[in-house]
Specification:
The structure holds 2 protein chains of 2 kinds.
Chain A lengths: L1 E10 L2 E11 L4 E5 L6 H9 L6 E6 L2 E2 L4 H6 L1 E4 L11 H11 L4 H14 L15 H13 L5 E5 L7 H16 L3 E5 L3 H7 L2 E6 L2 E7 H8 L3 H8 L5 H13 L2
Parallel strand pairs in A: 3-8, 3-9, 6-7, 7-8
Antiparallel strand pairs in A: 1-2, 1-4, 4-5, 9-10
Chain B lengths: L1 H12 L2 H15 L13 H18 L1 H4 L1 H6 L7 H4 L1 H21 L1 H4 L3 H7 L6 H35 L6 H36 L2 H25 L3 H6 L12 H12 L5 H33 L19 H9 L4 H16 L1 H27 L9 H22 L9 H6 L7 H32 L4 H21 L18 H27 L9 H18 L25
Classes of the chains: A alpha/beta, B mainly alpha.
């Protein structure tokens, strides 16, 4: 089980995340929603161990991950928001680097890379440098890198950005499949309908604080209609229609 | 009046064409601004200063040669400064060609508008012809700026040095004018020649093929430039000798410009006058050809970028051979070392700034080693063994490779992408130093054992009838290389290329001085000692306690390093003047 206990991160006097607490059980797919600047990425970075919380901690199977980050990360597959990869490496070389650093055996590593590249339709381009890849192709490389060592925990931060329709559909089914396999999945996204479809539970953040945490079903039941409606109700007090009308008015003005 | 002029200038600066020219100029100097955002990016001012430095330094070093006191002490009462300036004039022409050529090769990728320019500009109401002319103007501005900057210091200092004994201002003005004209023309010629040579291949080869061979082509051009630099030691004397030996040198562009210089000074003999006639038509031809090639290349690449796909399926890959697998199994034993060492190799071979910097330091090593080789032919050891000059060659090369790699390791690449190492690598294992040491030594020890030992054994057995000299010399170079590598990697706690650039600190100057001192000890004193010791190989035993002592000192420093100074870092934090303890948290 993965737990975030009173997670707080401060940058000088500014609190990016305040007292965020949640738990993630095997088989659970927890969606994390929130507008820009709500603290989603900071929470993800604390969960991956890239950032140390100012207060609170992340526990994996009851142990604070900061005690032994290296062994925690053996169980972790992470897809970051931005596909920052080394552009002069080929797709194959990048995955080989990740696999080697993870300590995977060379033979099984090569087999896995080959199979996963084939399944993600990247096999033809495996020896081209990443610099020549489109955003979607880079995203798929990141997904393969996260999946190939069969980790226990998955943290996806906007994993669908740049993916084409087919790859996105495959990925949505994959996330559900991972849940059924008993993996722990933390899924951060802006795309509400995807979260609604693939996640069993939702954590909604606003200004660094948890404002709602429950199953998708319950949130829908309590607030009515769709998750989008519930989200807008909880997070945004902006009249979206009025803002759109104002933009058109400014555009048309002389 | 001034206000009107300022307003007109401001309006002119904001015109689309001028904005485009400025955009392209900025791109040529700063690269694409994305891939190298955190890498080796130098500001325009710094770049121009660095490019002007060699000419300035060399001019200052020549003060001795032209000083009247020194000439008087050498017994030269009446000296013709123009005659004795010939080799130096040639050197400055070559320097101008080499520096300009190196910059043209270095910035090659930024000379043409790229995919990003295309997608940013074609959506705007600007014709592709305007983009073409704007880029062309930017290119011409760059050539002008480069030619003036590279030669600025030498155009002032060199005539001052040569004319130090002359009382006539006219001499200085005339000498400076001719010198400036010739070196600037040589610079312009070189830039367009490089543009033509590389552009021609780009035009005739398919895009995918050119992309693959482009680094090798550029490396070849760099080698040619290094060879040209080397000719500056020999060509002037050849030029002053018999005519028959001049046949091959008439193909050197540097000679055309030297002959042009001599012609303008009325010092050319008939052969020189004939060669000087090639310079200007040659420059004109290269200019026209380069512009033609550029226009064709522009039409072929920029206009059709939308039709091209960046992701070209590539067949096959360079698999590790048996040797690579053996190195993996026997030397790079942990997954961390294997993964990171492969990453280091690939970065060294594929990253342009790293490759160029390493090639520059390596090139310096080759030039110094060549000079040592020439000196070795001219001098003999006073101890009846191989001369110190001959012995110093592998020391010079090893020093340049080791120090070059150590410097290059500090230059970051794609810092945004280092998250993967932050996530994967166990910061507490302290494996960076051993990994970096293995990478550096793998670049040195193989050629020491496979080339240095056999060559020096052969030389030793032919010249002195003692083949063991090769083994002793090889072991000496290897031992010193290991110790130098260990010394340079003391407190090295980062993965090469993944940490931000180190800040300039006060001890940086000490480090540079230490480097020069190290070179003197490593490649100067050690071969001298070795040359003496080889006359009686038992003397070589002296080196064992010295090496052991150095090793012990390094061991003590390493074992006394605090744990916090061993922890892996990804960012060079500035030293704070005041540290807040945050006791209240």
């Amino acid at each position: 089980m993965l737990e975030g206990l009173h997670l707080t991160k401060r940058y000088a006097s500014l609190a990016a995340v305040q007292d965020v607490t949640f738990s993630l059980r095997p088989g659970q797919v927890l969606g994390c929603l929130g507008p820009n600047g709500s603290g989603k990425s900071t929470t993800v970075k604390m969960l991956t161990g890239l950032l140390e919380p100012t207060r609170g901690g992340v526990l994996f199977d009851g142990h604070n991950i900061r005690g032994d980050l290296a062994s925690y990360r053996k169980h972790l597959g992470y897809v970051p928001e931005e596909p920052n990869l080394y552009p002069y490496l080929t797709g194959w070389e990048y995955l080989e680097l990740i696999g080697t650093l993870r300590g995977m055996a060379k033979h099984s590593l090569e087999k896995k890379i080959d199979s996963l590249l084939e399944l993600f339709s990247l096999h033809v381009h495996r020896h081209a440098t990443i610099a020549s890849y489109s955003k979607g192709m880079r995203q798929r490389i990141l997904l393969i890198a996260a999946l190939m060592d069969n980790p226990q925990i998955f943290i996806f931060d906007e994993p669908l950005s740049g993916l084409d329709v087919t790859s996105a559909l495959i990925f949505k089914n994959l996330v559900q499949g991972l849940g059924q396999e008993g993996k722990l999945v933390f899924y951060c996204s802006h795309v509400l309908e995807v979260v609604e479809k693939v996640c069993s539970d939702v954590l909604i953040l606003r200004q660094g604080k948890v404002i709602a945490q429950d199953s998708v079903e319950n949130i829908r039941k309590i607030l009515g209609k769709s998750l989008e409606h519930s989200f807008l109700h909880l997070v945004d007090d902006v009249d979206t229609m009025r803002v759109a009308r104002d933009i058109v008015a400014v555009m048309s003005a002389a | 009046m001034i206000t009107d002029l300022t307003k007109s200038w401001a309006r002119y600066r904001q015109r689309p064409f001028t904005r485009l020219v400025r955009l392209f100029l900025a791109r040529i100097f700063h690269g694409d601004g994305e891939a190298e955002a955190e890498g080796l990016d130098v500001s325009l001012g710094l770049a121009l200063t660095l490019l002007a430095l060699p000419g300035g330094f060399v001019s200052i070093l020549l003060f001795n040669k032209y000083g009247s006191l020194l000439q008087w002490m050498q017994g030269a009462v009446k000296v013709d400064p123009i005659a004795i300036a010939l080799p130096d004039e040639y050197f400055f022409i070559v320097l101008s060609i080499v520096v300009t050529g190196a910059v043209a090769v270095w910035r090659w990728e930024s000379i043409f508008p790229d995919r990003r320019d295309y997608f940013n500009l074609v959506a705007l109401p600007i014709s592709t012809l305007t983009v073409f002319f704007a880029n062309m103007v930017a290119l011409l501005c760059l050539v002008g700026l480069l030619a003036l900057d590279v030669n600025a210091a030498s155009c002032i200092l060199f005539p001052m040095v040569v004319g130090a004994t002359q009382t006539r201002f006219g001499f200085f003005a005339e000498f400076a004018g001719v010198h400036a004209l010739v070196v600037v023309l040589a610079s312009v010629f070189t830039f367009f020649a490089v543009l033509f040579v590389l552009g021609l291949w780009m035009t005739i080869l398919p895009q995918s093929v050119f992309k693959r061979i482009s680094p090798y082509l550029r490396a070849f051009v760099q080698v040619c430039l290094a060879v040209l630099l080397f000719t500056s030691f020999a060509v002037p004397s050849i030029l002053q000798r018999s005519r028959s030996s001049r046949d091959w040198i008439r193909f050197l562009p540097s000679i055309w410009f030297l002959c042009l210089c001599q012609s303008l000074r009325d010092r050319a003999d008939p052969t020189m006058a004939a060669l000087s006639h090639i310079a200007l038509p040659g420059l004109g031809s290269v200019l026209v050809l380069a512009i033609c090639v550029y226009a064709v290349g522009y039409r072929r690449y920029f206009v059709r970028i939308a039709e091209m796909t960046d992701a070209v399926p590539v067949k096959g890959r360079s698999r590790l051979g048996q040797l690579g697998k053996l190195v993996d199994r026997s030397i790079l034993r942990t997954p961390f070392q294997r993964g990171c060492a492969h990453f280091v190799w690939k970065t060294l071979f594929r990253s342009e700034p790293h490759r160029l910097l390493l090639a520059g330091i390596g090139g310096l090593g080759v030039v110094l080693a060549s000079q040592a080789l020439l000196a070795a032919f001219e001098s003999a050891s006073p101890y009846g063994t191989i001369s110190a000059d001959a012995l110093s060659i592998p020391f010079i090369l090893a020093f340049c490779i080791i120090v070059g790699l150590r410097i290059v390791f500090e230059i970051p690449i794609e810092l945004r992408s280092n998250w993967i190492f932050q996530l994967m690598v166990d910061a507490g294992k302290h494996e960076c130093e051993p990994m970096a040491r293995k990478v550096i030594l793998l670049c040195v020890l193989p050629w020491v054992f496979l080339i240095v030992i056999p060559v020096y054994s052969y030389v030793g057995s032919r010249a002195l009838g003692n083949w063991t000299i090769g083994i002793l010399h090889g072991l000496m170079v290897a031992t010193w290389s290991v110790l130098l590598t260990s010394a340079l990697l003391l407190r090295f706690r980062k993965l090469p290329f993944t940490c931000s650039l180190p800040l300039f600190r006060q001890h940086s100057i000490v480090t540079v001085l230490g480097c020069l001192m190290g070179f003197f000890l490593f490649a100067g004193v050690t071969p001298q000692f070795e040359s003496w010791a080889l006359s009686d190989p038992v003397r070589m035993a002296v080196i064992v306690p010295v090496a052991a002592l150095v090793w012990y000192v390094l061991y003590r420093i390493r074992s006394n390093t605090l744990e916090i100074d061993k922890t892996l870092v990804f960012e060079e934090a500035p030293t704070r003047a005041v540290q807040v303890l945050q006791l209240g948290d």
